[in-house]
Structure formats: C-alpha cells, structure tokens
Write a structure and sequence with these properties.
By secondary structure, this protein is of the alpha+beta class. The protein has helices at 14-17, 34-43, 49-52, 64-80, 132-145, 176-181, 204-210, 223-231, 285-295, 299-304, 346-370, 388-398, 412-425, 446-473, and strands spanning 4-5, 10-12, 83-85, 92-100, 103-111, 113-114, 167-168, 173-174, 198-201, 216-218, 237-243, 247-253, 265-268, 275-281, 316-318, 336-338, 375-381, 401-405, 438-442. Helix content is 35%, strand content 18%. A hairpin with a 2-residue loop joins strand 4 (92-100) and strand 5 (103-111).
C-alpha cells in the first residue's frame, strides 16, 4: 500500500486574494506556449505561470538562469506576502468542477505527500509514457525552488469508500470539525441519503430512450454492504465471511463501534440506524494462487491434497503476501513458511496456506469482538468456500459456525436490487432483506479447535518477530 502523509502547503495568501484564484491559476505547464504564458501574466502579474513555466516549451531542460529566476520570483512572493506556508501539515481536499457535453461534473481529489518507491514494486503504477526532457525540466525547477510545483495526478482504489471519513459515521452526517479542518462547508458537500432512500429519479431523456417511467434511484451502498443486503445480514449475530482473492469478515451492528487500533473498518450500513464492521485480509485465496504459481500446480489440485483434516499442518504460514490490514495495518508485513523440514511435502504447504488464512480470519474475529461486536456464525461465500476442507479448518480456527447457502450467488448486484425494492416500497423489513436458505452448516471440531488454539499462539507471536528480522535484513 502506498504511504501518504500530510504536508505544509505553500499557497496564495487567502487574506490578500480571497477565494477567487481564477486569475492566478494556470493550465498544466506542458500544454502552454509563450503566447499562453503572456496572456496569463496579462490577467495577473502574479499568475503561477511566472514560476511554474520558466522555459518554453518544456520539452527539454532550459539554462540554469531561467530556473534561478523562477526561484527568485517565488522567494519574492513569499517575502511580500503573496504566498504563505500553512502552519500545520494537512491533506488538502480539492474539488474540480467542469462542464462537458452540457453536463456539469465535480471531480473530487486530494493532495498529499506520497513516498517514492522502487519502480515495479507493485503498489504505484505508471499511467503514461514520460520523456526525459520534461522530467529534467521539472527536476531543475524543483531543485531551484525547493518545492514541488507540479503535482502528479494518480488514481487510487477505494472500494470501501474510506475517504468518506469526512463523514461523522456515528451521527450519519457530515463532520463539522473535519469540514472546518479542510476549509470546506456543508454547502460544498452532497446531500446524504440512506442506501434504501430515494436519492433522485431517472433522468427524463434516459427514461424516454429506454421506454420506462422516471423511476426512483436508491442511495445504494458499497460492495460489501450491498452483498450483506443480498444475504440479509442486517442485524448482529450472523455475518458473512467472504473467501475470495482477499478476505472479508462482515458483521452488522446496532451502533457505531470503531476499533481503529486493530484496523477494523467501521461504516454506516446501507439501511437506516444500522452500522457495520469489517475485518479485511489482503491475501485469502490469493495465498493459494501464489502457491499454485510457484509450484506449477493448479489450485484445485493443491486443494485436493488437503483431505480430511484431523490435525494441524506441521508448517506455519503467514499469509501477508501483500501486507495486511486487520489487525496489523502494515503494508510492509511479509509472508513466510515456518517449520520447514526435509520431510515437508506439498500437501503440508497447501494445508498450511489454508490454515494461515484461517488464522488471519481468527485475528478478524478477535478484532471485531474487541470492539464489542458479537459474531457467532457467518455465511461462507466466495471461491474458497467451495472447499469443504478449508471451511472445516476455518470453522475450527475461528470458532465460527459457517453457513453454506443453497444458492451461492449473492453478489453486490443482488443486494443493490434489494435496496432498489426497499427504495420503491419503503419496506426495509425481512420481507425484502430475507436471509438465504442454508444447505449445510460447518461447525468447529472441538479437538481440531483446541489444536488450532495452540497454533494460533505461534501465529500471533510470529509476525512481530519476523518483522524485526525483516528490518534487520533491509
């Protein structure tokens, strides 16, 4: 996971220029010509282009004196109060409004420091081909001015909408304190609706094109909350355990009960007066996929090596192949096989991989219960749930009773359809959010559970020791 931090921004003095900076900002440096630069400076002599575009065109680095002049200009602006440095570090929220094809859009983003990392590490990806000349130009400008004038635009995955922490989750409302801290107001924020409420209606032109009425549009929900709606996981007690590429343990709650210390995800549920928590692990079935890749054996073949489990594997596996969220919140956590011997076979490794993932889910169970969330059973979904051996391991390691639905297709789209039905009818009862019929239950095996409890102690102790060893070898 990329590391971002707050920083102290250098910006136009709001006491001098107010909120309207339209005459002071400029398009990206690499699309401007000399004439464009002159036009912008004619609008205001302190337009940022005076510093940000010292050499035209910026297809190669210019002479040193143009960058020294840009630095002198910036120093002058800082000295006379044109520019000010914020007193406290912050992550800066930025809303960009524009119009395209007659429709207005708002693109929401933020500015932050991001730590550079080795190319190809796999968490920050290039989005376009860049050339040596412009990079040399930007580097000389950064070295001369001692600041970064050209922010790098990036896209990030946020399937759980974590940026919505601007929201006061407990009150299901915008947080006035956080809005004030970011310089925003309620007038700039969208109207909040419950996932089962009417957020709007289908646009007239689309309704006419599709030949349907202007039906209401539900507020909807995030992918996991919508999946929970499809499975009827709306009250405490029974959650769902998703054994996919990554893993999710989801539980509904009657109140907002965060546990940030153990990286528990806590959000508003998609229906009124309900919240939910999630423990998330980053490598669930992906652990088996990785083992498949390095052994050349298909995942089903590896899973088939794990028969009727009567005792733990002699090998311990830490499934932190992509870092870990709950409860470690450590992007640099690393995976490991511990306890390898000459007699260790592939079946031992496959079982250890399944057990390592199960131990990580046990971490999630403990983290949720630490937050006061009762969870005793969970619907088992996802590709890994097809393995009865893995479910037996999972139940015994976590202490959860795992429920296998008769119909395994309970994706987020199904829950979104239920939210639409609730929106259209106003009914948020069990009639809409019914629970699925159960095909089978997988209960913890007492003897295996006792053995896994002992192995869990080793699992819990291994991470901090491996972390320290990894740090020594870095």
């Amino acid at each position: 996971m990329p590391e971002i931090t707050a920083f102290r921004a250098l910006r136009y003095n709001p006491e001098r220029f107010g909120k309207d900076l339209s005459k002071l900002i400029a398009p990206p440096y690499d699309v401007l010509t000399d004439d464009d630069k002159a036009a912008l400076l004619a609008r205001h002599e302190r337009n940022i282009v005076a510093v940000d575009l010292p050499f035209v065109p910026p297809k190669s680095a210019g002479p040193d004196e143009v960058y020294e002049k840009a630095a002198d200009t910036l120093d002058q602006w800082c000295g006379d109060g044109t520019m000010v440095v914020d007193e406290k570090p912050a992550i800066y929220v930025y809303h960009q409004q524009y119009e395209h094809a007659g429709r207005k859009y708002t693109r929401r983003k933020f500015f932050a420091h991001m730590r550079l990392e080795e190319f190809g590490k796999g968490t920050v990806f290039p989005h376009e081909l860049t050339f040596g000349g412009p990079k040399a130009d930007r580097l000389k400008l950064m070295e001369a001015t001692r600041c970064q004038m050209s922010a790098v635009f990036g896209l990030y995955s946020d399937p759980n909408n974590a940026v919505s922490r601007l929201l006061d989750v407990g009150k299901r409302d915008w947080s006035d304190a956080l809005l004030a801290a970011t310089g925003l107001t309620r007038a700039q924020m969208p109207r909040l609706v419950e996932g089962s409420d009417v957020s709007g209606h289908l646009r007239a032109e689309l309704a006419e094109r599709w030949g349907i009425p202007r039906v209401p549009v539900a507020g909807g929900g995030g992918d996991n909350a919508a999946t929970a709606c499809g499975m009827g996981v709306m009250t405490p007690g029974t959650g769902f355990l998703s054994l996919g590429t990554s893993g999710v343990l989801f539980a509904a709650t009657e109140a907002y009960a965060p546990n940030t210390g153990d990286a528990v995800h806590t959000f508003c549920h998609a229906v009124p007066d309900t919240w939910h928590q999630m423990g998330v692990i980053l490598s669930a079935t992906d652990s088996m996929s990785w083992l498949s890749e390095i052994t050349g054996k298909p995942v089903p073949e590896l899973a088939g090596l794990v028969g009727a489990v009567t005792a733990p594997s002699p090998v311990l596996f830490l499934p932190y192949l992509s870092g870990e969220r709950t409860p470690l919140n450590d992007p640099d956590a690393t995976g490991a096989f511990l306890g390898l011997r000459r007699a260790t076979g592939l079946a031992d490794l496959a079982q250890a991989a399944m057990e390592g993932v199960a131990m990580a889910f046990a971490d999630c169970v403990h983290a949720l219960r630490k937050a006061g969330t009762p969870i005793e059973a969970a619907y088992a979904v996802g590709g890994g749930a097809r393995s009865r051996a893995w479910l037996r391991i999972m139940a015994s390691a976590t202490g959860l009773t795992l429920l296998e639905p008769e119909d395994g297709d309970f994706g987020a789209a199904f829950g979104a359809a239920k939210l639409a039905a609730a929106c259209a009818t106003g009914d948020t009862s069990d009639r809409i959010f019914a629970r699925p019929a159960i095909r089978a239950e997988v209960v913890p095996d007492p003897e295996l559970a006792a053995a896994y409890a002992k192995k869990y102690e080793a699992h819990h102790a291994a991470y901090p020791r491996l972390r320290d060893l990894t740090a020594l070898g870095a």
